[in-house]
Design brief:
Blueprint: H1 3-16, H2 22-26, H3 62-75, E1 81-83, H4 91-94, E2 107-111, H5 115-128, E3 132-135, E4 139-143, E5 150-153
Parallel strand pairs: 3-5
Antiparallel strand pairs: 1-2, 2-4, 3-4
Helix pairs in contact: 3-5
The structure holds zinc ion (ZN).
Length: 154
């Protein structure tokens, strides 16, 4: 059907409808936005657990949190996320030349209390395929970066 035919059909239809209803018919179809996107739920986490501590922004990735749910399940003790998503304006990220994994929404630091918990997180993270693992005294960083798997200390 040609555009001109659509236009005349449209005008015919509009003539049949009271002007008060025109707005309803001309409102574009509902778009998914942050406000009306269905909330994804996880077994052990809330999306809010990953909000940037500096700005409150939260671009944590759904696939990452699903993976962290698996890690939490494997470890069997409560996880405290000490850092999740970090805005590019967060002081730690602002120093970097390119966005780190926290700023990409694919990383979290998990608090650990002693060597048994630390080992459990590291061991399970390797088995589950987390590619970036940073080992600190009080936390373990895990991320799902692409490319060569790496591990570091702080
Ligand atoms: Zn980290």
């Amino acid at each position: 059907m040609a555009v001109s035919q659509y236009k005349s059909l449209y005008q015919e239809l509009m003539a049949l409808i009271p002007p008060s209803a025109h707005r309803i018919l001309t409102t574009p179809p509902c778009q998914l936005s942050k406000e009306n996107t269905p909330k994804v739920t996880y077994k052990y986490f809330k999306v809010e657990d990953f909000a940037c501590s500096e700005t409150g922004e939260n671009e944590i990735q759904d696939v990452f949190v699903k993976k962290l749910d698996e890690l939490r399940e494997a470890c069997g003790f409560p996880f405290i996320v000490t850092s999740g998503y970090r805005s590019p304006n967060h002081p730690i990220e602002a120093k970097k030349s390119s966005p780190g994994t926290h700023a990409q929404g694919i990383a979290a630091d998990i608090a650990v209390n002693g060597g048994v918990q630390r080992r459990k997180v590291v061991h399970s993270a390797i088995i589950l395929g987390f590619k970036g693992i940073g080992v600190a005294k009080s936390f373990v960083h895990v991320d799902t970066r692409k490319g060569t798997p790496v591990m570091w200390t702080y």
